Amino acid sequence: MDVVAAKGLLAEFKGDTVALGVFEREEKGKVPELFITAKRIDAKAGGILAESLKKGEFTGKLGAVATYHARGLPMRLILLIGLGKRSEFEPDAVRQAAAKACCAARELGVKKLGFCVDSVVGKGVDLEVAGRLLTEGAILGLYRFEAYKTEKEKKEVESLHLITSGNAKALAEGACKGEIIASSANLAREICNDPGNYATPEKLAKFAQGIAAKYGFKCKVLGKREIEKEKLGGILSVSAGSHQPPAFVILEYNGPKSAGKKPIVLIGKGITFDSGGISIKPSKDMEKMKFDKAGACAIFGAFAAAARLRAPLRLIGLAPLVENLPGGEASRPGDIIRMHSGKTVEIISTDAEGRVILGDALSYSARFKPKAILDLATLTGACVAALGYECSGLLGNDETLLAKVESAGGRSGERVWRLPMWKAYNEYNRSDNADIKNVGPPSAAGTICGAKFLEAFVPKGVPWAHVDIAATAWNDKPSAYMGLGATGVGVRLIAALLDEL
Ligand code: BES
Ligand code: ZN
Ligand code: ZN
Question: For the domain 183-500, what is the CATH code?
Answer without folding.
Answer: 3.40.630.10
